[in-house]
Amino acid sequence: MLGTNNERSYYGIVIMGEKGQMQYYATAAETYEGEAGKYNCKRLTIEKGKYLAESLFDWQNNIACIKDIFNELIRDKRADTTKPAVEWYRNNKEMLCMLPTVRPKTEKT
Question: What letter does residue 70 receive in the DSSP assignment?
Fold first, then answer.
């Protein structure tokens, strides 16, 4: 739909629904406000914050490894599994598997 554009970031976003069903979105960053609407696409936002991340190099030939990397990240006690997982395709060679971290609760005084 968008062609190849090196000035745009590409992402995969996985949202876990009720009863464990996954919703996967192949996404691209807008290059101008309202671009998603032009193509009749759902607009998603990746939350700012700290993420656990692991690089996968030569990802196009190692797609089967993606699930293993996320399974390892999920086991980290800092991972917030209630929020979407993110695949950030940095370029044709490297992608980052990312999970948000749990925000520490502040104590009331």
Answer: H
State how far the Cα of 78 lies from the Cα of 92, in Å rounded to an integer.
29
Report DSSP state, residue 46: P
**Taken in order 23, 25, 30, 35, is the CA torsion positive or negative?**
negative
Tens of pLDDT, residue by residue, the chain (109 residues): 666 666 789 999 999 877 778 899 999 999 888 888 998 998 999 999 999 999 999 999 999 999 999 999 999 999 999 999 999 999 989 999 999 999 776 655 4
Q: Specify whether the CB–CB gap between 78 and 52 falls below 8 A.
A: yes
Name residue, tokens 């599994």.
81
Specify whether the CB–CB gap between 98 and 87 falls below 8 A: yes
Prediction pTM value: 0.84
Q: Which CATH superfamily is domain 10-100 in?
A: Regulatory factor, effector binding domain (3.20.80.10)
